Amino acid sequence: MEWYSTSLSSPSSSSLLNLRGSALTRRKFCKKFSHPSLSSSRLPKPFLQVHHIPHTLIYQQSPGNLSSKTYRATISAEAGKQVEKLSGPSPSKPVKSMENSDIVLVAGATGGVGRRVVDILRKKGIPVRVLVRNEEKARRMLGSDVDLIVGDIAKESTLVPEYFKGVKKVINAVSVIVGPKEGDTPDRAKYSQGVKFFEPEIKGDPPKLVEYVGMENLINAVKENVGLQRGKLLFGFEGDNYRQLSWGALDDVVMGGVSESTFQIDPNGDENGGPIGLFKGVVSTANNGGFTSIRNKNFSEPENLSAYDGLELRVKGDGRRYKLIVRTSSDWDTVGYTAGFDTVEGEWQSIQLPFSSLRPIFRARTVSDAPPFDPSNIISLQLMFSKFEYDGKLNPTFKEGPFELPVSRIRAYMKDPITPRFVHVGSAGVTRPERPGLDLTKQPPAVRLNKELDFILTFKLKGEDLIRESGIPYAIVRPCALTEEPAGADLIFDQGDNITGKISRDEVARICVAALESPFACNKTFEVKSTVPFSEPFTVDPANPPPEKDYNEYFKNLREGITGKEALQQQSPIPV
């Protein structure tokens, strides 16, 4: 086997960099590894040095233009469809559903909204993990059996990556602490009445540290586990992003065959004129052979793709059926989780292979007692063109001779519809302190006292911006003044940061949990209040409670891109 480190480091080279080894070298390799079991300790040669592609040779494509061209044909090899069509019986142990083990992290779980969120999630049977600063307080409030992380978002060193394994979604209810200057009761009775009823001051860490630095720390701690909406690039070219892998040919010479393949870079082979990888070769059934493949060098650190639903390949088809093999073990000759995919001759296609469609295969046989596929521990990828399917089935598109499969990228993807992975409890009013022409006498105390409270709303807005810029699917809930009243009042959802009023903490907690499961809430920023005026208390008759709300009816009317910052950006220039 020979390894290829493809590079565009020489602009004068031909458009295809031919890095294929000679047939003689391959036969030596076949002779050296006559035993059918390949040992990772006996690899024939180390990988060549990986070179970076010079920036001037990377095709520049704006995201807008790319998206209009890249998704013309999406093929999804769902289990029971394309993959099942040509395969043998399913494994006796189905792949474990990841959704059943998803954990929701609640940050700020001992606060007024946070503890209510925890209660709702538990009642729904959703696994919960809480991030708190005070373990004793948390266990007293939430129960001794709570799944708990002791950490402080203001202190990056306390957010150990190991703590967040298994977390797929986050509800962040952390907030800087505001309290009465004159002090409060042990159960914070004055605070619960609302800042309108006392002279406030910051207690503990300042807003910049909690709302901005802390937000950055929390996002960095959970990002790998909750994922990015655009997916995670494993190989190839996507806009101005590029990720290189070292690939090596693994052909039927290991069984005495004569097929051979290579992996090259074509600097101009992409549908938009940019670079691609090219899996090509000649396949033959002579000497009982009939397959060619390329496999990347094991990742130096396993790739954690647990936030995603599958792998997407962008390829130009040739009418043949190929396989993608994913390995979760660093052993050389081991089970590969495999899916076949069909291509259309001459067409660029985005082919989605859900993790649920991957079949545990060892030497073309289904391994019924293989462990469930673990997307958090991806070790290597392999592309194969073979005469053989699985369990005695044959590839109906197989034919001997030359073949080639251009590959512009391989990435992990989130399936549609995408729902928020990060729900944040912010505050109405965050854009108002700097808004021109605003009558501050009609605004809540936090707006009037923003400077005195160490720019609390300014840093809350900066923290929001970090979420919106992170690439994580999100929802930002901006409640008006929080109360201890029960949920159930009629609500007003708004955007643009203009409304004032009050809303129950119970209601906000319900909205946060509902947003986690709603595609209509994804990437939306909104304010919410009840229709009940401040001067009127809201009560509920326990014998005749109000009906539960379908929050999707509110989420459906929200729009992306509206934050209230629009009013700041439209300020007239100051006359000179």
UniProtKB/TrEMBL annotation:
UniProt xrefs under Pfam families: CIA30, NAD_binding_10
NADH:ubiquinone oxidoreductase intermediate-associated protein domain segment(s): 243-407
Domain named NAD(P)-binding: residues: 108-224, 410-519
PANTHER family: FLAVIN REDUCTASE-RELATED, UPF0659 PROTEIN YMR090W
Name assigned to this protein: NAD(P)-binding Rossmann-fold superfamily protein
